[in-house]
Amino acid sequence: MPFAAVGFASVVSxxxxxxxxxxxxxLVQLAEGSHRTLELISATAADGMIAVTIILAMSFGLVVPKxxxxxxxxxxxxxxx
Length: 81
Hints:
The chain has helices spanning 3-32, 38-79. By secondary structure, it is mostly helical. The protein is elongated and about 70 Å long.
C-alpha cells in the first residue's frame, strides 16, 4: 500500500477527532462548574454536532458508493447470458 494512502487515511480520521476532543474539554469544564457560560455550552454543543455530522458524512460517503457498485455489478452480471 502506498505511503500516501496510509497518511491520508490517518489524517482524515483526525478531523472529527479534533472536534471530539474540544467537546470533551468543554464537557470537563462544564462538569467542574466554575465557568458555566452560555458561550461554553454553545461551543461544546457545536463541536459535538460538527463531529457527528462529519462522521455521518464520512459513513455515507463510504456506504453509498459501495451499494451503487454492488447494485450495478449485479445488473451487468444478470444481463449477460
